[in-house]
């Protein structure tokens, strides 16, 4: 017993030395957080952020880093406040009880599953547009195209979670490089675009209204909360009592990298396209890459942009399918039913296939779904739950009294109120 205690003490005592130098492990997590956040949601951010005009976009750009960093740091601290090795659901049960743990499982499912539906629609639109505009082939009926695409992705899912994770890790970095190169490619095509709206400052009420509805999309575009639990558990295992300090360093660098990268891409797009063209992209329910492919006569970008979008959306679909299926299985088990493992897999896959196919066929507004479903539910878990825990959990009261807590709470409330407004209007 004493030997075990001594080994733990030695691990904790060695942590300060480890903190003094940045390791490959830290870089891997920094890029992992970056890769998780930068996905298909980024492809719709220029449309929604640019539609409001120059001044709302500038304000959103200034808010991007603090909004992303403080929220994910709060969620990381929340997971770190639990016992060693506990994931986010277990920490919720530890602090708030079994009922709250079941509620969080439910919320996670409803935070992830709508995003899966968004990607089903986006993938169908991307492939349909590519067939029509780049290959000059009449796409098959939407119901058939969406069914074929979703069945193809579910076939990959059947190969197992390890293969999915490996495939995703291989796709993340080429996507990031391609996105950066595309943003650079657009520079000679900058024509001012959104700068035409800079000369007139909008009325305060109109400005606030635009920001209000745009923030949920920003939350969605920079969100990487699904990986935060695993990130926090690994940092606690590696750095012990110093995990919070190292986690904050990794998060700050990852968020700085992603904000600079995404905002460069966003500004490059909105300086190339006019607000009217961005509105047209939204009306066509296309990602910014598919619209750019149709906009330019350059054959390289015409073919490359939809393929980049296809990779990004497929990667995001596979990643979110894992979380959504796990959440659905958890809900089925917690309801009292205990089917066999194979039966549970079949039930989950059948449910996902039918609902994703129906939504992809109906083709609802992607940005509308992000605004009303994805962003606000994520905000409740990412922004509000950790701030509530700071007031209620003794081990988290050390973080109370900070101005950043007020900022995070306000952003969370704004995102959720946007949902209520969108549903009521």
From TrEMBL:
* Location of the protein in the cell: Cell inner membrane
A Gene Ontology term for the protein's cellular component: plasma membrane
UniProt KW keywords: Amino-acid transport, Cell inner membrane, Cell membrane, Membrane, Symport, Transmembrane, Transmembrane helix, Transport
Gene Ontology MF term list: amino acid transmembrane transporter activity; symporter activity
Bilayer topology reads: Multi-pass membrane protein
Pfam families given in the database record: Trp_Tyr_perm
Reactions listed under catalytic activity: L-serine(in) + H(+)(in) = L-serine(out) + H(+)(out)
Q: Where, by residue number, does the polypeptide cross the bilayer?
A: 29-47, 53-75, 96-122, 142-159, 171-190, 210-233, 254-276, 296-322, 343-360, 366-385, 406-424
In Swiss-Prot or TrEMBL terms, this protein is called Serine/threonine transporter
């Amino acid at each position: 017993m004493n030997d075990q205690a001594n080994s733990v003490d030695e691990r904790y005592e060695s942590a300060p030395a480890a903190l003094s130098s940045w390791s490959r492990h830290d870089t891997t997590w920094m890029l992992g957080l970056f890769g998780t956040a930068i996905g298909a949601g980024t492809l719709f951010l220029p449309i929604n952020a640019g539609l409001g005009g120059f001044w709302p976009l500038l304000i959103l750009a200034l808010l991007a880093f603090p909004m992303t960093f403080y929220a994910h740091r709060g969620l990381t601290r929340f997971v770190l406040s639990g016992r060693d090795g506990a994931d986010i659901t277990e920490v919720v049960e530890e602090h708030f009880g079994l009922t709250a743990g079941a509620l969080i499982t439910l919320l996670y499912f409803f935070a992830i599953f709508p995003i899966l539906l968004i990607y089903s629609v986006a993938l169908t639109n991307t492939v349909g547009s590519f067939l029509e505009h780049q290959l000059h082939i009449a796409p098959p009926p939407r119901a058939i195209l969406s069914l074929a695409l979703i069945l193809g992705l579910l076939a990959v899912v059947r190969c197992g979670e390890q293969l999915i994770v490996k495939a995703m890790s291989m796709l993340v970095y080429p996507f990031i490089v391609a996105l950066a190169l595309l943003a650079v490619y657009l520079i000679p095509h900058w024509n001012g675009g959104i700068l035409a709206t800079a000369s007139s400052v909008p009325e305060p009420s109109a400005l606030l209204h635009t920001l209000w509805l745009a923030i949920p999309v920003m939350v969605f575009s920079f969100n990487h909360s699904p990986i935060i639990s695993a990130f926090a558990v690994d940092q606690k295992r590696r750095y012990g009592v110093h995990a919070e300090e190292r986690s904050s360093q990794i998060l700050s660098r990852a968020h700085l990298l992603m904000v600079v990268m995404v905002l460069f891409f966003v500004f490059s797009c909105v300086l190339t396209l006019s607000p009217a063209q961005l509105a047209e992209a939204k009306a066509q329910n296309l990602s910014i890459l598919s619209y750019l492919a149709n906009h330019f006569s350059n054959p390289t970008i015409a073919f490359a942009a939809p393929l980049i979008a296809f990779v990004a959306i497929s990667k995001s679909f596979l990643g979110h399918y894992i979380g959504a299926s796990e959440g659905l299985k958890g809900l089925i088990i917690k309801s009292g039913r205990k089917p066999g493992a194979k039966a549970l897999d079949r039930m989950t896959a059948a449910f996902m296939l039918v609902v994703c196919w129906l939504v992809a066929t109906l083709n609802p507004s992607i940005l509308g779904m992000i605004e009303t479903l994805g962003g606000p539910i994520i905000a409740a878990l990412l922004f509000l739950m950790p701030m509530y825990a700071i007031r209620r959990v003794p081990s988290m009261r050390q973080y109370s009294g900070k101005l950043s807590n007020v900022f995070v709470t306000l952003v969370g409330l704004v995102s959720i109120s946007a949902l209520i407004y969108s549903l009521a209007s």
